[in-house]
Design goal:
The protein is an alpha+beta fold. The protein has one domain. It is built from three helices and six strands. A six-stranded mixed sheet has the order 5-4-3-2-1-6. The N and C termini lie far apart (60 Å).
């Protein structure tokens, strides 16, 4: 199964600290266990390494995702259509029309039960977005894009003296 296919992802995660990679891989296992019928879509982008699960090969059908920012190594566990999910405890961050996420800083503090409910809700929503059943594929890891140029840590700029 695709959960075991880590070669490309591990290559993309090389610039990150050991602690960040361990946390990201734990989150990946958590998500795969909740979405075994889905596909993992990987993006090695300019500003982040991001990967998520979808019942198709389309990100617009996304269930959940993990993103590691290149500049500060922040980790998001997010939902492409998070604005449409219930969030009774108001822990999902984001003000836009779609994406919602939590900032993951410690696996011990990760709200597993709460996020499991949001993933289940997101899965139902993602299936409702698929109009053509022929689009459904399962259990694949698909590298969707690799940016040539990568952003590194944010440059410190000198502040003007007052």
């Amino acid at each position: 199964m695709s959960k075991d296919q880590t070669k490309d992802l591990l290559k993309f995660l090389k610039p990150f600290s050991k602690e960040v990679v361990e946390m990201v891989l734990w989150l990946r296992n958590f998500a795969w266990d909740l979405c075994p019928q889905a596909n993992e879509l990987i993006y090695d982008n300019y500003n982040a390494v991001a990967f998520g699960w979808s019942p198709t090969d389309k990100p617009m059908h996304g269930i959940c995702s993990i993103a590691v920012m290149r500049t500060n190594q922040n980790i998001h566990f997010g939902f492409y259509w998070g604005s449409r999910l219930s969030d009774p405890e108001k822990i999902l961050l984001g003000q836009g029309n779609q994406y919602r996420y939590i900032l993951v800083t410690d696996i011990k503090k990760f709200p597993k039960a709460y996020i499991m409910k949001r993933v289940n809700e997101a899965y139902v929503h993602s299936l409702s977005m698929v109009k053509d059943p022929k689009q459904k594929v399962q259990g694949k890891t698909i590298v969707k894009s690799i940016s040539e140029k990568k952003r590194t840590k944010a440059k410190k700029t000198a502040r003007p003296k007052k």
